[in-house]
Write a structure and sequence with these properties.
The structure holds two protein chains of two kinds.
Chain A: E1 2-11, E2 14-23, E3 27-31, H1 38-46, E4 55-58, E5 61-65, E6 70-71, E7 79-82, H2 94-102, H3 114-120, H4 136-148, E8 154-158, H5 166-182, E9 187-191, H6 194-200, E10 203-208, E11 211-217, H7 218-223, H8 225-228, E12 236-247, E13 251-256, E14 259-264, E15 273-279, E16 283-286, E17 297-308, E18 314-320, E19 326-332, H9 333-338, E20 346-351, E21 355-356
Helix pairs in contact in A: 2-4, 4-5
Chain B: H1 3-36, H2 42-54, H3 57-68, H4 73-80, H5 90-116, H6 119-126, H7 131-142, H8 144-159, H9 163-169, H10 179-188, H11 192-224
Helix pairs in contact in B: 1-5, 1-8, 2-5, 3-9, 5-8, 5-9, 6-7, 8-11, 10-11
Classes of the chains: A alpha+beta, B mainly alpha.
Chain lengths: 357, 226
């Protein structure tokens, strides 16, 4: 199943012109600065905003086709929408908020079990409370559950964590990961937080100035040097693997492909799937295998491309570890010249630190 | 209180109840439209529904008399429908009172609807509620304090109606003679003690009604600050 969208609108001083072709599986992140048009795009998908000359199709269902005068109003679209602020109904308690959408769909369409969702998002102790008596994080969990209980074909999330502080974000992220692992509902996730996106997304759409700059599997999009600067906190690559063991000296090991990465000690059990982000600025390159270095994560790699970095005098080098895994290294152009780093050369990549997501 | 006065009180309460119902039916869609529209007509429509606030009741009453009278368009319509003429009847003063009290009901409702904002309506739509469903299950409960204010204001304003009633209805016992007219009659006839009963009762009633509005709005405001 696929999602095909074409949105076009001109407003004072701003043109939005996007064509999207997304897989209807997993989590797709729409990433961009505020004002880039990503929220407008999400609202258009939901039908909350009717953009002229636009088209939207999910699977075989056409929700909008202005050239044929088709526009399905939002309440007839099988979507779930989580807004930036939880927006619970203040006149209803948590249980009634949860049931609001659920009781408006036919029993035959209910594919998501209420008890499962309540368990998944840890809402059991909150059911009888009024929204006013909840913390920000609790409210957002209720809002997510409320949207899921309509058994949506597509879950739309508009920066659901941005109104929360860091601690609350950390409280909700594991719930989002569980949704991802346990429910087969595709998600479109709007965000301008690089850490959330790299942690959750399978696919990444980079949006800037109302246009799609890049789209594809997240690992692939991140490797493209041109997009590094759009990702606001620096070029990076993503490593996804499984915890394979806990080591001495407060360390854990993450296995990915035929490689192993040494991490600071993790609480997760062996076998747990984990994502890490390696910033290009934390990767350096040696021509020979270094032995007398304090860095413990060293991988043989092949240079696949050398491109310009963000600032003059900087180069971004893409290193291929194997078919699946690449790393980005940010080097000075002086070093690149001195070491004669060219595509096809074999080098050793030293990873100084890893951000566990 | 004499039996005549009790008839007057009963008639007044009946009038206020009928008028309040009529007002809710008319003012709710108007207030909803005003709260949601981006139409250029909004200021004009707002002004039309606020006019009764500033016009002297005699002016309003005069034009309503012409409109509802046997030669007026509304009068001819009601006569054609076999309803007879409206002036000097209960139905006539009910319509006149409703027109005069409209702004007192439209405005609190419009304020309450505007205070809800767009977001709850959008949330309801994404939860599969049609606009009609959303109105009854989100807008009405969220605007409850506004409805309460509107009902109390409409009711109290109708109970105190004098000028318009006099212009349209005259002074027919059991049909159009309401409290304020009766107080006027008592004062004219120097029956001050009877006038006191009715006038004092109105003061007490108005105070209690307004107190209830303020208490309820105060509570709603405190609850509303999430």
């Amino acid at each position: 199943m696929a999602i095909v969208a074409k949105f076009r609108v001109e407003r004072e001083g701003f043109t939005l012109d996007m064509a999207l072709n997304l897989p209807a599986t997993g989590i797709t992140a729409l990433y961009g600065a505020s004002g880039s048009g990503k929220t407008t795009c999400l609202r258009a998908i939901a039908g909350l905003e009717r953009l002229p000359n636009s088209f939207f199709q999910i699977g075989t269902e056409v929700w909008q086709d202005e050239s044929n005068g088709i526009f399905v109003p939002p309440h007839q679209r099988q979507i779930g929408y989580v807004f930036q602020e939880a927006s619970l109904f203040p006149h209803l308690d948590v249980a009634a908020n949860l049931q609001f959408g659920q009781k408006r769909i036919a029993a035959a369409e209910r594919q998501v079990s209420e008890s499962h969702i309540i368990e998944l998002l840890g809402l059991k102790p909150l059911l009888k409370r009024s929204p006013a008596a909840l913390s920000g994080g609790e409210r957002q969990r209720v809002a997510i559950a409320r949207a899921l209980l309509t058994s949506p074909q597509l879950l739309l999330m508009d920066e659901p964590l941005s109104a929360l502080d860091r601690a609350l974000k950390q409280e909700i992220l594991p719930y989002l990961e569980r949704l991802h692992q346990e429910l087969a509902i595709p998600v479109i996730y709007v965000s301008h937080a690089a850490d959330e996106v790299t942690r959750l997304a399978d696919h990444l759409v980079l949006i800037d100035g109302g246009e799609v700059k890049a789209a594809g599997p997240i690992k692939q999009v991140l490797l493209d040097h041109q997009h590094a600067e759009l990702f606001n906190d620096g070029a990076s690559s993503v490593i996804e693997g499984q915890i394979s063991g806990h080591l001495e000296h407060y360390a854990s090991e993450l296995r990915f492909g035929r490689f192993a990465l040494r991490l600071s000690q993790q609480d997760h059990p062996v076998g747990q799937q984990l994502r890490c982000r390696v910033f290009a600025s934390d990767v350096s390159v040696c021509l020979t295998q270094p032995h007398d270095t304090s860095i413990s994560n060293i991988f043989p790699a092949k240079v696949s491309s050398v491109g310009d970095g963000r600032r003059p005098g900087e180069k971004l080098v893409t290193l291929q570890l194997d078919q699946q895994q690449h790393l980005l290294a940010q080097l000075s152009s002086h070093s690149v010249e001195r070491l004669q780093i060219h595509p096809g050369h074999h080098v050793w990549a030293q990873v100084k630190s890893v951000a566990v997501l | 209180m004499s039996g005549v006065d009790l008839t007057v009180v009963w008639l007044t309460l009946k009038l206020a109840s009928v008028v309040t119902l009529l007002l809710l039916v008319i003012a709710t869609p108007v207030a909803w439209w005003l709260s949601q529209t981006q139409s250029k007509l909004k200021p004009a429509v707002s002004a039309i529904f606020a006019i009764p606030l500033v016009l002297p009741p005699t002016v309003l009453g005069f034009y309503l008399l012409l409109l509802l009278g046997p030669n007026g368009p509304a009068g001819q319509l009601s006569a054609g429908l076999g309803l007879g003429t409206l002036p000097f009847s209960f139905a006539g003063i009910a319509i006149a009172c409703a027109v005069h009290s409209l702004p007192f009901v439209v405005q609190p409702l419009q304020n309450a609807f505007e205070a809800i904002g767009k977001r709850p309506l959008e949330v309801a739509a994404t939860l599969r509620a049609s606009p009609w469903d959303t109105f009854w299950h989100v807008v009405v409960p969220m605007a409850r304090p506004g409805f309460f204010t509107a009902i109390v204001m409409g009711f109290c304003h109708s109970i105190g109606e004098f000028g318009v009633v006099l212009m349209i209805g005259g002074n027919i016992p059991g049909e159009t003679r309401v409290l304020s007219v009766e107080i006027y009659n008592h004062v004219e006839a120097m029956e001050y003690s009877q006038a006191h009963w009715l006038a004092g009762g109105m003061v007490a009633f108005s105070f209690v009604a307004l107190l209830a509005i303020y208490i309820i709005n105060h509570r709603a405001n405190r609850r509303g600050t999430l």
